[in-house]
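Most newcomers find our protein records easier to grasp once they have seen one. A record pairs a protein's sequence with a compact description of its fold. An example says more than a description, so a record of this kind follows:
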Amino acid sequence: MKNDFSKIQVAIVNDHTLLRNALAILIGSFENFQVYFEAENGEDLKAKIKQKMLPDIILLDVNMPGMNGYETAEWLYNNYPQIKVLALSMYSDETTIIRMLKLGAKGYIMKTAEPEELKLALESVIEKNFYISELISGKIIGGLNRNTEIPDEFNITDKEKEFLKWSCTDLSYKEIAEKMYISTRRVEDHRNALFEKLKIKSRIGLVVFAMKNGLVDV
């Protein structure tokens, strides 16, 4: 099949051939999405990417033999941070979810999800750089000790706190800029400052931090 690069290119990484093929058919039916390639594990994905096959987004299984989802997500963030990762798993425990998000995944979806949710998750990761379902939000909260205030050691400004709260919504960075009456460039400055101060790699990590410290109610 010839690739239509006007569409969003998706790579599927999963060690189960039947599931991988079924996901490819499903994603191929979504408007504006096309499956670029499939890979059976992290090593297979690395080989394809090193051949300059760079997708826009990767649907990444967490549990795979060889190079698993954790190792693959970390490698992608360190080497190809422009590629967005949507984690896919049958596990809904908070430890797995939080670990994948901390490693740079932009979202997390269950294998039991309906096709409509997968489409929504892919669109959200592409358009807003993150996706959290109500189920996953609850799991994250359940796995974190909530505090009432951000520790002073982080030295977060009031504007950065405001940006942090808006980051936990479904608004794009452009829309957040409009809400805060600042430029998109200034929003990016707040984001990058928080990434540095909090040692966080993604917007989803900011959401986890905000929930942990009681800045938002989910």
Summary: The chain has ten helices and five strands.
